[in-house]
Design a protein that fits this description.
Blueprint: H1 17-30, E1 60-67, H2 70-77, H3 82-99, H4 107-111, E2 118-124, H5 141-146, E3 149-155, H6 159-167, E4 176-182, E5 185-191, E6 199-203, E7 207-211, H7 214-226, H8 236-239, E8 250-255, H9 256-265, H10 273-279, E9 282-292, E10 295-304, E11 331-335, H11 338-349, H12 359-370, H13 374-378, E12 386-392, E13 405-412, H14 416-432, E14 437-443, E15 446-452, E16 458-465, E17 469-475, H15 494-499, E18 509-514, H16 515-521, H17 531-536, E19 538-549, E20 552-561
Antiparallel strand pairs: 1-2, 1-8, 2-3, 3-7, 4-5, 5-6, 6-7, 8-9, 9-10, 10-20, 11-12, 11-18, 12-13, 13-17, 14-15, 15-16, 16-17, 18-19, 19-20
Helix pairs in contact: 1-3
Length: about 600
């Protein structure tokens, strides 16, 4: 099959640029994809950078790069279930027929002979996004989106064929092609089409640049010649190589401060000034996606603005909690320093209406429920590794209301005396305020404290592991699964070892979710569209993160996926019935 997103949009009546780009990004996310880059093309900066990074203007909002290798696209289609494959194929066929076939182009015949291994699609932000104080937008969000423009960069491996394609483009349904030059670069530009004008230019015979706006073409040429491209943006060239991988499927880049400014200019959901100021500390977020035998691997990196006063604490101390929980654990999330994590959350979330929960609400909730100060009484001694886990019970269910899973919180304390003082205060609150019985007990000879509700159901247990690790169990009574330390731990299981990335190492956090067992035994709230079908296609999810240096964070994610047996070929190109385009007769 042919990649459906590679097109030369020379002949269109509809507005395709943003639709194409957003559809491509949506396809990547919806199919477990997130776009990628080129290792084999010659670049001005480095073979480890995004394709066209030396052409895309430095203030681009985001960029997505995709492989043109048909074998990789076929491999992507083999993941999942029949249902997810059908949904993916629907998107691939729609995009292919709309942006290739309906315009008279066939990938194998017209594109493959000259295009490189990857192509890049970038969105340039509106001019207002580059201003320090965006003016209030009086038009709707759709109008604001129309101000954005698209740049496609197609690396050329056969300049002669590319030149012939550019010299004799397909006939326009309306309007005509004109020739002009800018800074000595020949440009082929459409004129007279309703609502849009496409431009195409060949730079140094190595890159075909296509845009939906003549000004965008000039901006790309300026960036290329004046070295004001993405490749020279602060932190880009230093951080992108950290996520390089062999033969990736895709790659993406997001300009965080520019995206924040656009959000701040929105009339319906404006960002407060203090939130915008905080986001200016961040510069970029980038990632790669690689297809492996059993799933999809993502390598990500985020970095701060080089001019930011903020620095990251290089503290990677996670990695022991998975050896404290049993093999049957359904989910585990760990981190290196809970106090520091809270501080970072406060810094980025305070006053942010898009935060899941405002820090002030969390502090107030803890104070109201426990009469304890979150920062002074609790987090002050939680400076070590922590984890949150879901562990199913093997006990027989006495009634439909019994808990089937226990929630386990563990944290390595930096001051056990302070911890014990706060825990005793918490015991008093449970006894006096909620009328719970607070009962000392033993599990495998080790002392614990049980919280028993007025109805006699065991609802909580806390104690100590290895002298400095405090734990609290809520829900199902699963304390006997962690005391004493289990012989068969989560860390020793094949699902954990095959899913949770071993890099970066050392790490400051890990995540594991056994999707198959969790979905099978426990109902989950719906958070995203098509959630059930996506979960049905997934076996497990693992992530490892680390602070790379004082300016950047690294993330590795692996999604273990099921496979479709007897995967069929993608349907042949068909004419778009809503247009008068002539269909291609060549199979992709």
């Amino acid at each position: 099959m042919a990649p459906p997103l590679v097109s030369v949009p020379m002949n269109k009546n509809k507005k395709p640029s943003l639709v194409l780009t957003l559809s491509a990004a949506g396809l990547l996310i919806g199919a477990g994809s997130a776009a990628y880059w080129l290792l084999s093309q010659r670049q001005l900066s480095s073979s480890d950078l995004l394709v066209g990074a030396n052409i895309i203007p430095g203030d681009a909002l985001f960029a997505v790069s995709l492989t043109t290798d048909p074998q990789q696209w076929q491999k992507l289609r083999e993941f999942g279930t029949k249902e997810t494959q059908a949904e993916l194929d629907k998107n691939l066929v729609e995009l292919r027929d709309r942006f290739l076939t309906s315009n008279g182009y066939d990938f194998q015949k017209d594109i493959a002979p000259w295009v490189g291994n990857d192509i890049t699609i970038a969105i340039l932000a509106p001019a207002t996004a580059s201003k320090p104080a965006p003016k209030p937008v009086t038009t709707n969000e759709d109008a604001a989106s129309d101000q954005q423009s698209m740049v496609m960069v197609l690396p050329v491996k056969n300049p002669e064929i590319a030149k012939s394609i550019l010299a004799q483009p397909k006939t326009l349904k309306q309007g005509k092609w004109i020739d002009r030059t800018y800074q000595g670069i020949a440009i082929k530009q459409s004129e007279g089409q309703a609502g849009e004008n496409f431009s195409a230019a060949l730079l140094d015979g190595r890159f075909l640049v296509i845009t939906d706006n003549p000004k965008a073409t000039e901006r790309a040429i300026d960036a290329y010649k004046n070295k004001t491209s993405l490749a020279t943006t602060g932190g880009f060239a230093e951080n992108f190589p950290k996520i390089a991988n062999y033969q990736p499927f895709g790659q993406f880049y997001i300009n965080v401060p520019t995206a924040a400014k656009i959000a701040a200019a929105s009339p319906n959901r404006p960002l407060p000034a203090q939130v915008l100021a905080q986001l200016q500390n961040n510069q970029g977020l980038a990632g790669t996606m690689t297809l492996e035998a059993e799933g999809i691997r993502f390598k990500g990196v985020s970095w701060l603005n080089p001019n930011s006063q903020r620095v990251l604490a290089v503290e990677n101390k996670a990695g022991k909690m998975q050896s404290r929980v049993p093999a049957e654990t359904l989910m585990m999330l760990s981190g290196g320093n809970l106090q520091r994590l809270w501080g970072d959350y406060v810094l980025t979330s305070q006053g942010n209406p898009r935060s899941p929960i405002a820090p002030e609400q969390i502090r107030g909730g803890v104070k109201s429920l426990t009469d304890l100060d979150l920062d002074k009484d609790l987090l002050s001694w939680m400076k070590g590794e922590f984890s949150l886990s879901l562990i199913p019970t093997t006990a027989k269910q006495g009634s439909p209301d019994d808990f089937r899973v226990g929630l386990l919180f563990m944290v390595q304390t930096s001051n056990r005396q302070s911890a014990e003082t706060s825990i005793k205060q918490l015991d008093e609150v449970m006894r006096n305020q909620y009328q719970f019985q607070v009962q000392p007990a033993k599990v495998a000879g080790q002392p614990v404290v049980n919280w028993v509700s007025p109805y006699g159901t065991l609802t909580g247990t806390h104690g100590w592991l290895d002298g400095d690790v405090a734990f609290l169990v809520v829900g199902a009574p699963i304390t006997d699964k962690i005391v004493p330390k289990p012989n068969n731990t989560l860390a020793s299981t094949l699902p954990f070892q095959q899913t949770v990335p071993t890099e970066p190492n050392p790490a400051n956090g890990q995540f594991f979710l056994d999707v198959e067992r969790t979905v099978k035994n426990f109902p989950l709230p719906t958070l995203i569209p098509n959630q059930q079908s996506l979960l049905a296609a997934t076996r497990s999810i693992g992530m490892t993160s680390a602070v790379s240096d004082s300016r950047s964070n690294r993330y590795d994610i692996f999604i273990s996926l099921k496979k479709v047996r007897n995967s069929t070929a993608l349907p042949s190109p068909e004419s778009n019935k809503s247009s008068s385009a002539t269909p291609s007769t060549t199979s992709p």
